[in-house]
Amino acid sequence: MRSEAIKPAGVSDRAQRIGQRVERFVRDVVAPYERDPRRDSHGPTDALVHELRGLARAADVMTPHVLEDGTHLTQRETAYVLRMSGLSPLGPLACNTAAPDEGNMFLLSKVGSPLIRERFLRPLVSGQVRSAFFMTEPAAEGGAGSDPSMMKTSCRRDGNDWIVNGRKAFITGAAGAGVGIVMAKSDDGACMFLVELPHPAIRIERLLDTIDDSMPGGHAVVAIEDLRVPQEQMLGRSGKGFAYAQLRLAPARLSHCMRWLGACTRANEIATDYANRRQAFGKPLIEHEGVGFMLADNLIDLRQAELMIDWCADVLDAGANGIAESSMAKVAVSEALMRVADRCVQVMGGTGVSGDTIVEQVFREIRAFRIYDGPTEVHKWSLAKKIQRDWRRGSAA
Fold first, then answer.
1. 273: which of 2, 7, 159, 223 lies 20 to 30 Å off by Cα?
2. How far apart are the C-alpha atoms of 392 and 389, rounded to whole Å?
3. Which cofactor does it need (predicted)?
């Protein structure tokens, strides 16, 4: 069921035009590649990604959320376009709207110097290379995870260079990436550095076996040993890394929600088609109340997820930092989409847990989404702290 003829409230004409092109491309061109064998247990191969991106360029849907002058669509417009790209698990990779590249492009466009934008951002926007964001560290070593202040990776000044040492974990797409953003702690505080990959001082120790497999390069454990980075490749200023991470964080959380809303929309379409075609006990599955009610609940959850995304996008477009709002959206949307994906599997029975459709993969990806970019419980804890702070301010007044 195509949504091209439907213009959601608040979506601009330009976003609808771009979104329609993306939807046609993902449904007609990308979806048939979902059975392509060029993938391993850690994700699609770079050969497959390269081919898909060539098709995206030909269809004029490469990096559709970034305009020709380098500016980005508004968050509300991006929400519509990225949802269309997410209609297939391969769609964001083909259209260059996938994590971590999409969030990294946003960050570099806001903070990067002219040199960084030319040398590192331009190849990302064109889709010539992938990127990785080196922040999370091994939990067994007490490193940074949901609490970035625990960062162990260090950096120190050496003339006009910085020397970085540490270990990172769950680094999405590190294998095969061409651009890396490395986060480390100096005497001033957190710092970020841009590096070209592969680099002899950045060594992939192993690729983790995880429940999801939609990201090329998988998720890596990485050792950084005496990485020397010129001062000009520092992003912004020393000690401002946490502030830059927050700048990236809220939009990146939200764009995760956008893409996976598209995936669950498609999974629900597949489950709905199955329920209307499949006969059981003398009638279509859809006519059995237990099945029909699950699909009705899916529509409710999908609509609520869309409204939450649009609300948070409007907050960001208004100029707020959106940290609390993006936490609320991440929790509400990831939990709602988990329910949708689970019901799709249940409606389809044995077919739902097979690889015959993307429903099984979407279920696995959404389960990981409830953890990536902060588990539900961490976001709720952060919101509870905000509630307490606001209460104290109100009481003091």
1. 7
2. 5
3. FAD
Residue 150 has pLDDT above 90, yes or no: yes
**Multiple choice CATH, 131-238, 2.40.70.10, 2.40.110.10, 3.10.129.10, 3.30.1330.10:** 2.40.110.10
Distance CA 143, CA 38 (A): 34
The two beta strands, 219-230 and 202-207, are antiparallel
Residue 65 amino acid letter:
H
Q: Are 4 and 24 in contact (CB under 8 A)?
A: yes
Instruction: Out of 1.20.140.10, 3.30.2350.10, 3.40.50.300, 3.20.20.60, select the CATH number for domain 242-396.
Output: 1.20.140.10
131, 101 Cβ separation under 8 angstroms: yes
Q: How would residue 36 be classed by pLDDT, with cut points 50, 70 and 90?
A: very high
Alpha-carbon distances of 119 from 25, 103, 305, 353, rounded to whole Å: 30, 17, 37, 44
Q: How open is the CA angle 45-48-50, to the nearest 5 degrees?
A: 110
Judged against a pLDDT cut of 60, whether residue 5 lies above it is answered with no
Confidence label for 68 from pLDDT (cuts 50, 70 and 90) = confident
Statement: residue 149 has pLDDT above 90: no
Single-letter residue type at 79: A
Distance, in Å, from the CA atom of 142 to the CA atom of 151, rounded to the nearest integer, reads 8
Q: How confident is the model at residue 4 (pLDDT cuts 50, 70, 90)?
A: very low
* Distances 241 to 3, 246, 318, 359 between C-alpha atoms, Å: 40, 9, 24, 38
Cβ neighbour number for residue 131 with a 10 Å cutoff = 26
| Position 162, amino acid | W
Distance CA 119, CA 194 (A): 10
Pseudo-torsion of CA 151, 153, 155, 161, nearest 10°? Answer: -130
- Non-local (6+) Cβ contacts of 89 within 8 A are 34, 214, 263, 358, 361, 362, 365
Question: What is the CB neighbour count within 10 angstroms for residue 396?
Answer: 6
The domain segmentation of the chain, as residue ranges, is 13-98, 131-238, 242-396
Bond prior to 375 in cis (omega within 30° of 0): no
Q: What is the mean pLDDT of residues 74-79?
A: 95
